[in-house]
Amino acid sequence: MEVKHVAAGHGWLWLKQGYALFIKSPLLWMVLLMICFIGAAGVSLVPVVGQPLVSLLTPVIMAGLMAGCRTLEEGEELELAHLFSGFQNMTNQLVTLGGITLVAQYLIFGVMIAVGGGALVTILMSGEQPPDPNAFAQIIAGAGISVMIGMVLFSVLLMAMQFAPMLVYFNKVAPIAALKLSLSAFLANVGAMFVYGMIFIGLAIIASIPMMLGWLVLIPVMITSIYACYRDIFPPVAIVSAEPPQADDPFKPEQGTF
Description:
This protein is mainly α.
């Protein structure tokens, strides 16, 4: 597949397009994300297998949310059933993607342990509440270079996972190839990704002010803006149509924006 390089200003455009998708069905988006978080929290409580199972199923759930975004983009209604679309199509490949990600996480933790971050990794993998802030700060300081190595490796993993579920689900790309393509797309558009990230951090600060209530909107917009980002960098094959785009199409290029 061809990766499209976009201008840095598209980072803001993705958030605008994401909000346009969210506002088409705001209440249902909140309900869908609430189900996701409650379900993930419940599964993670299962001893031994809970947290690995969440990692395995995350791409499946993400694909379902992206299917909901595509449905809204096409002018149809978002439904609760979209959340489970990943269990009906490309399920094995999506679970495989989750498995690769899980193995990659363990490998990164292994590298961190090898360079002196064993105590920190133990806390991170236990899923338990860390010790008091002073003790935790000392553990981080004692981990030394393993913290930096872990941050770099996990950042690369996140970049590889950015578009991988969509590439597997929509484009039928094999899991490993999807990870490579996602990483390539992220690096090719690092300017737009930086703008997107900086704006999102600013919105996150604002969303946190009124008792964190703004996150009820910001989290769904984050999901829908990820779809807008994917849609922009991996555009579908153009289809010639005699009809002009609708004026309210959130994915219609804006005149003079870039």
